[in-house]
Write a structure and sequence with these properties.
alpha+beta, 3 domains, four-stranded antiparallel β-sheet, 14 helices, elongated
Length: 423
């Protein structure tokens, strides 16, 4: 007994969406096989912006990842725009090399001409396919078309790609077979499906490794503590890691990514020079399409992990992402700040000997480039002491050290000068 194909997801124009978060939501339409066949016989005749489309799944969603994970698909389809054969030749190729005498619908697209018959092919299925199996079968369908000399648009392999239904233009023609003989790719293409699954499993394992590596890197990130927290974050966190950890898909090993809520299936986020810009307005990292204002790692982190809240991002980054000698950035900086405040309080006290000792302790290990008195006289300089044993007028002094308290010493000596005391 042949199945009755259920109602499939449909809509009108590329902007018709009912996805959560969309500004102008409209419930999706539905269409079954009888409705599709009726359109093949009597096509709509409207501008593409109002034209009816199909997603051959019963799941009402335009999100690619959602359809891949939860969709139930009842048709294969192909879009043939490049060097298309005439419909008679195309039907012959499909019946001889792909699906034998199984039911199918072939119709020209709105921009077709009699001498250039762009077309689409719909193949109803005997039983539904899961999103993952449907993607494999779509790939095999396109592979077999290519092997037969027909060039399909590979975008049809996207689980939420829109298939526009018959729409009369300058030229329209169609071919149909309707004998209730529905195609079963799981049996007809079992060998090819097994091979594709192996490829998918390998790619999925590589993607998991990249995402796990991104998470593992978080525990190993170290920084010297120089500069601002934002600069430190950008130094130790790759912007691609940020996207992978938030569920973006990477296009193989290329620096292109697809956001989880994509309705186009395109890898529209690109990384260049450590910054990412996205062409998709549904992507939280959307940058207007011009590449201007592309996000660095911290900006992407703020958008994706903290909904643009800069203060929350700074706290999280300093507590959990950036470390100095194995300790959280924020704790190290808080300790340094407390030391500086202690020195300032000591500098304001007449009995501030303890503060001076603290500075002397911190200063151990600091290397100072000095100039001798003889060198000053040779340079016709009159040595005038600003800070005893440390700074002289008209002499540039460089203090080179890392994480040992240069700022603390500078603040202490500045307070000393301001108070006019030698502590």
């Amino acid at each position: 007994m042949m199945p009755d194909l259920p109602q499939l997801t449909s809509g009108y124009g590329q902007f018709h969406t009912d996805e959560e978060g969309s500004r102008c939501r409209r419930p999706y339409a539905q269409i079954d096989l009888d409705g599709i066949r009726a359109l093949v016989d009597e096509p709509q005749q409207v501008d593409k912006a109002q034209a009816q489309w199909l997603i051959p799944s019963t799941l009402r969603s335009r999100t690619f990842k959602t359809q891949e994970e939860s969709g139930s698909f009842w048709m294969l389809w192909a879009d043939i725009d490049k060097d298309p054969p005439v419909l008679d030749q195309l039907q012959k190729t499909i019946c001889n090399d792909l699906i034998a005498e199984s039911d199918h619908e072939i119709y020209t697209s709105r921009s077709a001409r009699e001498d250039y018959q762009k077309s689409r092919v719909l193949v109803p299925l005997l039983q539904p396919l899961s999103g993952a199996d449907w993607v494999l079968c779509q790939q095999i369908f396109n592979d077999k078309l290519e092997a037969a000399g027909v060039v399909p648009d590979r975008k049809s392999e996207g689980a939420a790609q829109l298939c526009y239904l018959p729409n009369r233009g300058e030229f329209y023609d169609s071919r149909s077979v309707s004998n209730d003989n529905f195609f079963n790719p799981l049996s007809a293409w079992s060998t090819e499906i097994a091979e594709k699954r192996q490829e998918v499993d390998k790619s999925a394992a590589e993607a998991r490794q990249r995402k796990e590596a991104a998470k593992a890197n978080q525990a190993a990130r170290k920084h010297s503590g120089q500069g601002s927290l934002r600069h430190a974050f950008n130094d130790v966190v790759d912007v691609g890691e940020i996207m992978l950890m938030k569920g973006y898909d990477q296009d193989g090993n290329r620096d292109s990514y697809r956001h989880p809520d994509s309705e186009s299936g395109s890898y529209s986020a690109s990384v260049r020079g450590g910054r990412v810009h996205s062409l998709s307005s549904n992507d939280p990292l959307y940058t207007g399409g011009s590449g201007g204002g592309a996000h660095d790692s911290f900006s992407a982190f703020t958008r994706l992990f903290h909904d643009g809240n800069d203060n929350a991002a700074m706290k999280d980054a300093g507590d959990n992402w950036v470390k100095i000698d194995g300790k959280p950035w924020n704790k190290v900086k808080q300790r340094e700040h407390m030391q500086e405040q202690e020195l300032l309080r000591g500098a304001g006290d007449l009995s501030a000997t303890s503060a001076a000792k603290a500075v002397a302790s911190v200063a151990q290990g600091i290397m100072v480039d000095e100039i001798t008195l003889d060198e000053m006289h040779a340079a016709r300089l009159t040595p005038r002491v600003i800070l005893r044993d440390l700074l002289y007028a008209d002499v540039r002094t460089r203090i080179a050290a890392g994480g040992v308290g240069k700022t603390t010493i500078a603040i202490f000596e500045a307070v000393t000068l301001a108070l006019g005391r030698d502590l």
